[in-house]
Amino acid sequence: MLNKTNFMLIVSIILCTFFTSCENPIGDVLLRTYSDPFDQAPVVDSFREVEKIFLSWDEDKGADEYVLLRAEDAVSPVFKEVYRGKGLNYIDSISNGLNSSKMYLYRLDKRRGKVPFESEMVSYGYCSPKERDTNNNHTRENALFLGMGYAATGANLYCGKYKYKGTVVFEEDWYYVKVSARSIKTVVVTQTQPKINGTEDPLIFYLKDGYSLTNVGANFQLENQSLEDMYIPFKLQMKDFPSDKIEVVTYEVMVANEQPIN
Question: What is the mean pLDDT of residues 121-135?
Fold first, then answer.
């Protein structure tokens, strides 16, 4: 006959087995969160590789299954399922039905048991024919230093406007140069794709602190009126946001010369 001590020991062993087993449906039910799945939009990276869209999302303890849906960009998009499962990422591509240079919308629904949870959030993707450049300089904090004669080649920018809610997407590239006291440095920006002929204006614009966006043209100047050397930042971006498409521009930028202020 079991005494009280032995009985409690056996019960403890059984409970530990239930709650620590690798495959334990009882423990999973009893220990899981009571919260419903939270709403989130998938994180989208459209420029990591040519004609591929990388998507990821956070783990949700309240969800048993993730359902990723895709739609072509439209005022009233029609979403279709492209992935269903327990994974936290997905790579969409031409082989999965994407078309090069097309704009897409993504939605992440979830399921808990037999109950579906439809997301109210949307992410924006683009099946890009170009990869992003290797310069991680898309914020002022990550501005890339341009020394004299140094050229940042193969850099690119994108911008566009989606039909869905008129959402605008664009990229900025930040740089900074050292300008000597009482000197002017000339920065040259060359748009390489699409190429510019004599009748076209470049699509790239620049912004210095305290200035509005200005057409780059062939070059622009950074002026230091002070008696000390200065590091002057500037950014490049595309000013016009074409509707219903993404425009991608490739360019080169370099510091050409420095001259004293007369």
Answer: 95
Cβ contact 32:74 at 8 Å:
no
Token code pair at residue 32: 């899981």
**Whole-prediction pTM value?**
0.81
Distance of alpha carbon 139 from alpha carbon 88, whole angstroms: 27
Dihedral sign (CA 127, 129, 131, 133): negative
Q: Are 100 and 94 in contact (CB under 8 A)?
A: yes
- What pairing do the DSSP bridges indicate for beta strands 173-179 and 144-145? parallel
* Tokens (6 digits) for 73: 């960009």
pLDDT tens per residue across span 39-59: 999 999 999 999 999 999 999
Q: 82 and 92 in contact (C-beta within 8 Å)?
A: yes
pLDDT > 90: percent of the chain: 65
In this structure, the chain runs to a length of 262
CB 158 within 8 A of CB 247: yes
Q: What is the pLDDT of residue 139?
A: 93
How high does pLDDT run on average in the chain?
A: 87
Burial of 187 (0-12, 13-18, 19+ CB in 10 A): buried
Say if residues 191 and 160 touch (Cβ distance below 8 Å): no
For the chain, domains (ranges, CATH) are: 43-126 (2.60.40.10), 140-260 (2.60.120)
Task: At 125, list the tokens.
Answer: 């993707």
CB 73 within 8 A of CB 103: yes
Contact 157, 251 (CB under 8 A): yes
Q: Give me the sign of the Cα torsion angle 9, 14, 18, 23.
A: positive
